[in-house]
Amino acid sequence: MTRQMTGAEMVVQALIDQGVDTVFGYPGGAVLPIYDAIFQQNHIKHVLVRHEQGAVHAAEGYARSTGKPGVCLVTSGPGATNAVTGLTDALLDSIPIIVLTGQVPTFMIGSDAFQEADTVGITRPCTKHNWLVKETDALSGVLHEAFHVATSGRPGPVLIDIPKDVQFASGTYNAPQPSTSHYQPTVKGDITSVTELVEAMEKAERPLFYTGGGVINAGPAASQLLRELVSSTNFPITSTLMGLGAYPASGDNWLGMLGMHGLYEANMAMHGCDLMINIGARFDDRITGVISEFSPNSTKAHIDIDPSSINKVIRVDIPIVGDVGHVLEDLMKVWKSRGRKTNSAAVGNWWSQIKEWQAIECLKFTQQGKVIKPQYALSRLEALTKNHDRYITTEVGQHQMWAAQYLGFEDPNRWMTSGGLGTMGYGFPASIGVQMGHPESLVINVAGEASWLMNMQELGTAMQYNLPVKQFILNNERLGMVRQWQELLHGERYSSSWSESLPDFVKLAEAFGAKGILCSDPDDLDEAIMEMLNHDGPVLFDCLVEKHENCFPMIPSGKAHNEMLLGDADTQGAIDAKGSVLV
Amino acid sequence: MSDLNLKKGTSAKSAYNLRPNFSDIVERHTLAVMVENEPGVLARVIGLFAGRGYNIESLTVAEVDHEGKLSRITIVTTGTPQVIEQIKAQLGRIVTVHEVHDLTVEGPSVERELAIFKVAGDGEKRVEALRLADIFRANVVDSTLKSFVFEITGAPEKIDAFADLMRPLGLVEVARTGVAALSRGG
Ligand SMILES: Cc1ncc(C[n+]2csc(CCOP(=O)(O)OP(=O)(O)O)c2C)c(N)n1
Ligand SMILES: [Mg+2]
Q1: Which residues lie with the beta carbon below 6 Å from any ligand 1 atom?
Q2: How far is residue B64's CA from residue B182's CA, in Å, rounded to a whole number?
Q3: For residue B153, which phi and psi values (nearest 5 degrees)?
C-alpha cells in the first residue's frame, strides 16, 4: 500500500504502523515539521523530557521493560549530541531503540549551518546502524528497516537523521513489509554443537549455567525454557547483572549474581566448575576477573547470537551461534531425546560443595545503632515491595551493586540498569520510561545521591505526566564507589569523592510539586517506605545511610574469582600495582 | 574437535571459523569485504579498525557491481589468529557488510597491486634503472632527460623488491594503490 504524504507525516505514519504508542523527545528547529505532524494525531503519545539524554534513557527503560523498541525524537546539533550517551549505553547493553534526529536542510549540510552537527559521523560508533535520509521517497523504507535492524539479531540502538527539507517535501509512503534486506541474522544454532553440549552436560560433574542479558533479550519464552532446563537438570545457575530475573531469585538452583560484586558461592562455582554453560552473556571483564586464571578447569560452552562475542575474551570449547530461545529449545529436545541424563551423583557432590560456600553467607550484615546501613535499607525495601507488581531501575555506584545483591527478581524485564557503560544518570529517566510502559505498576529507582543529580531535571517530566515513580536515594553523601576504590587503591586519599553542597532533597521535590521524604533512623524506615508506597505521585526518598560502607564481596582488579574480598578485614594490600591500573 | 564453518546471514561462503587453533604468532591476512555501496560504509570499516585498535596494512575500495550496488573492500591486516577472527566477526556485524572472505585461509588466491615510481638520475644510474624496469616488466609512462616515471603491476612483494632496487638509483617518489585480490579457480 502506498500513499503520498510529507516526510514528517511519514515519520508519524511509520511509527503508528510499527506499533509505537510512546515517543520520548524534545523539539527544536530541525524537527518542527515532525512535531507539527505529532500535534495533529492521537495515536502516539509524546513525552516531553527535560534533556535529550533523559529521552534516550527513558526509551531504554521503556524498551527493556516492555520488550518493544523504544523511540526518541530530538533536534539537530545539540539535541543529537545530547543523545550520544544514551546511544552508547544502549549499544553496550543491547537495547533496541530508534532515535530520530532532525538535521539542517540537505542544501545546507556541510556549511556549518546553525545547529548543524555531523550526526551520523558522531553516532556511527555508538549505534548498531545509522542513516542520513536525503530523499523523502526513501524515508519510509529506512524507517521500517530501522525497526528491523534495531530488533533483530543482537538488538541495539539505531539512528535516522532527517534533514528538514526532507520532512517538508512530499513523497511516496510504503507500508511495512517483512524485511527483504540483506541483514537477516542466524537464529538457529548448529545442531551438531548443540548435541556436543548435551553430551558434555550428561558427563559433567561440576556443571554451571552462567546466563546474561541475552536471555532477557530473547524474550520471556527463553526465560521459561531456561527455568525448565535448570529444574530438569538440577544444575546450579548464576547470572550477570544484566541477566537478573531470567531465572527467579527464589528458585532452588539460584546462586545469585556473579562478578566483581557477585556472591561468593557464584564466583567460587565459576572458578571450580568443570562445565560452564554461558547462555547469552559475553565474558565481560566485570565477570571474568583476571583472564589467565578464569575458571581454569572447565569446558566452556557459549550460546550467543553475535559471532563476535565468541572467543573475543575467553576461548571456548563449544561455540553455538544463535538466538538463546531457539538454541534452548533445540537443547531441550536433544537432551530429552537422549534420555534426560545427567551425572546426578557427581552433581549431588557439587551441590554439597556449593552449600558449604553458601553457608558463609557473604551478604550477611548487622544493622545496629542509629545509622541506616544501605544493605538494611534495601532489605526493608525488598521485604515491603516484593509482593508488588514491581519494576526496579538503578543509577550507577555502590547502591546499584547492593540493589543487585539484596533485591530479588522473579521475572525477566523487571530490572533495568546500566551494565556495560555504567552511566550515572540512567536510572531516573529509565524509571520514567518504565512507568510509561506500565502505568499501573510500582516503579522504583534505587539511586545514589550523586547519580540522581545527573538527570534530576526529569522530575519535571514525572510531574507533568503524573508518573508516580519512586526515587529511593541511598544518600551516603559520597561518590561511594569512587570513594571505595580510593580507600582500597589510592591510600585513602579521597580526591573529589565527597558529594558536597547537596540540596535539601525534600525541598527540591517540593519545588517541583513532588513529595519528599527524609529518613535517617532505622526505626522509622518501614513507616517511611510505606509512606512512599502509599503516595500517589512521584516521591523523592532521601534515605541517609552509613557514609563509609563498602560493597562486598569484591573481586579486586587483577585478581581471580577465588580471591574475593568478603569484608573490610580482607582489604589490606589486596590490590597490587598491576591490578591498580585496571578500571 | 571438528571445525565448524558458520554461515553469516545468507552469504554462501563463510569466513568465520569458530574453532580456530589459536597461536600467538602474528599473521598477515588479506580480507575481501563485500559491502553495500552506501555513503559512510568505508567510514564504518575504517572506524572499526581504528576504534578497536586493529592494523591496516593496505586498503582498497571500488564498486564492483553497479546494479547490485556492491563495493569490494580489500584489506590487508595483521594480528594473531584470535585477533584476525575478531576482525572478521566484527566486520560481519556491520549491517551493510554482505560477506567477509579471508582469502588467506579460503584457498589459493592472487594479489595484485599497481605502483608508480619516479626515478631521477643520469649516466650509469639512468641506464641501470631502465634495464631493471625492463626486467620487472615496468612500463615507462613519462620521461624527461633527468627522470623516468615507471608503472608496475604485481604482487606486493614484487613491488617491494622493485622499490629496493630503485632506491640507490635515484628513487624520488612512489604511489601505490594497495592490494586487490581474488581467490583462484571457479
Ligand atoms: C557519567 C558517569 N560519570 C562518572 C562515573 C564514575 N562513577 C562510578 S560510580 C560513581 C559514584 C556514584 O555515586 P552515587 O551515585 O552517590 O552512588 P554510590 O556509589 O554512593 O552508591 C562515579 C563517579 C560514572 N559511572 N558515570
Ligand atoms: Mg552516594
Answers
A1: A 395-399, 422-425, 448-451, 474, 476, 478-482
A2: 12
A3: -125, 140
Out of B1, B18, B98, the one facing A311 most closely (by C-beta) is: B18
Least trusted range by pLDDT, from A415-424, A527-536, A550-559? A550-559
Contacts of A348 (CB under 8 A, 6+ apart): none
Terminal Cα distance for chain B, rounded: 30
Residue in A280, A312, A256, A267 with CA at minimum distance from that of residue A93: A280
Quick one: cell of A518?
A: 527524609
pLDDT at B9: 32
Whether A574 has a pLDDT exceeding 80, the answer reads no
Q: Return d(Cα A148, Cα A430) in angstroms, integer.
A: 23
User: Average pLDDT in the A535-548 region?
Assistant: 98
Locate the DSSP E strands across A401-520.
415-416, 442-448, 470-475, 515-519
**Dihedral class, residue A368 (left if φ above 0, else alpha if ψ from -120 to 50, else beta):** beta
Q: Which residues 6+ apart lie within 8 Å of A130 measured at CB? A: A119, A120, A123, A124, A158, A159, A160, A161
Three-class SS string for A243-268? Answer: HCCCCCCCCCCEEEECCCCCCHHHHH
Query: Under an 8 Å CB criterion, which residues of A touch B?
Result: 120-121, 124-125, 128-129, 132, 149, 154, 182-186, 190, 192-193, 196, 306-308, 310-312, 315, 317, 319, 321
10 Å Cβ neighbour count for B67?
5
Measured in Å, residue A313 CA sits from the centre of ligand 2 at 32
Q: State the DSSP string of A499-513.
A: --S---HHHHHHHHT
Rounded to whole angstroms, how far apart are CA atoms B162 and A311?
A: 40
What CA dihedral angle connects B159, B161, B166 and B168, to 10 degrees?
150
User: Which has the closest alpha carbon to A519: A374, A402, A411, A409?
Assistant: A374
**At a CB cut-off of 8 Å and minimum separation 6, what does A79 contact?**
A26, A28, A30, A31, A52, A101, A102, A115
Measured from the Cα of A449, ligand 1's closest atom is 16
The DSSP annotation for B68-134 comes to TTEEEEEEEEEE-HHHHHHHHHHHHHSTTEEEEEETTTSS-EEEEEEEEEEEE--THHHHHHHHHHH
* Distance between CA atoms of residues A134 and A164, nearest Å: 10
Pick the closest to residue A506 from A458, A462, A464, A459 (CA basis).
Answer: A459
Amino acid at A162: I
Instruction: Calculate the average pLDDT of chain B.
Output: 90
Are A246 and A239 a contacting pair, CB within 8 Å?
Answer: yes
The whole-number pLDDT of residue B1 equals 29
Contact in structure between A216 and A246 (CB atoms under 8 Å): yes
Q: Do A183 and B22 touch (CB under 8 A)?
A: no
Prediction ipTM score: 0.93
> Which of A197, A282, A299, A310 has the most B C-beta neighbours within 10 Å, making it the best mutation to test the interface with B?
A310
